[in-house]
Amino acid sequence: MKKLTLASLLLVCSYSASASINEQQLATYYQATQGDYSQLDTLYKELQQAHQQQPSDPWTLFYLGGTETLKGDDAWMPWSKMSYTEDGLARMNKALNMISEQQWQQQYRHLPQAIFMQATAAVTYTRVPDFFNYQDQGMQLFKQVLNDQRFLQSPAPATSWVYRFAIEAALNNQQPALAEQWFKQLQQTGVKDDYSQLTAQLMAEHGKS
After folding, report:
1. CA-based angle 156:138:49, to the nearest 5?
2. Where are the alpha helices (DSSP H) in the chain?
3. Alpha-carbon Rg of the chain, whole angstroms?
């Protein structure tokens, strides 16, 4: 399973998030997406408890599912890998279906929580092995997010990571025209950061402008 790398820039600043998960837990989660699983079991237990306390909160359920998916990558036994990953992806998907107006109103890292959840799910879905059958859903989520006016009107530095992983997914799914379209959108934002530079390198490697 590929690492679900969202890179260190997502950890630089803290913004408002649901009180159900604290910033340290979110930092631990994104640290785990970069391959550091040292605190993963502790985080998993904490999020299980948080979900039990707030079972109707999609934000908590989403990160519980994401953590469970990462535990699938970390597990040794094949059946444990399958079980954790399948259950984690299902929880993430359930959380997306529970999104309410609250998640559209609350912001996380200068994006609506709902958009952040959808984009993070898209990254995850397009990076798990194909046999889990989430690739198509991941691509559809990327298309949905990158066409959403609330995303397009968000500060450019808050959106560049989404373009980075969406373009990578498009190229991996043999959709170069879509990758080119999204790369042009990214260029039009005028953002110049690590994500935009990595994306330009990726496009160059694939012979795209």
Report:
1. 90
2. 23-33, 40-53, 58-74, 78-97, 101-105, 113-125, 135-146, 149-152, 156-172, 176-189, 194-205
3. 16
Q: What pLDDT digit, counting tens, does each position of 71-119 carry?
A: 999 888 888 899 999 999 999 999 999 999 999 999 999 999 999 999 9
Whole-structure pTM value: 0.88
Q: How far apart are the first and last CA of the chain?
A: 29
The string over 52-80, giving b where at least 16 C-beta atoms fall within 10 Å of a residue's C-beta and e elsewhere, is eebeebbbbbbbbbbbbbbbbbbeeeeee
Task: Give yes or no for a contact between 127 and 4, defined as CB atoms under 8 angstroms apart.
Answer: yes
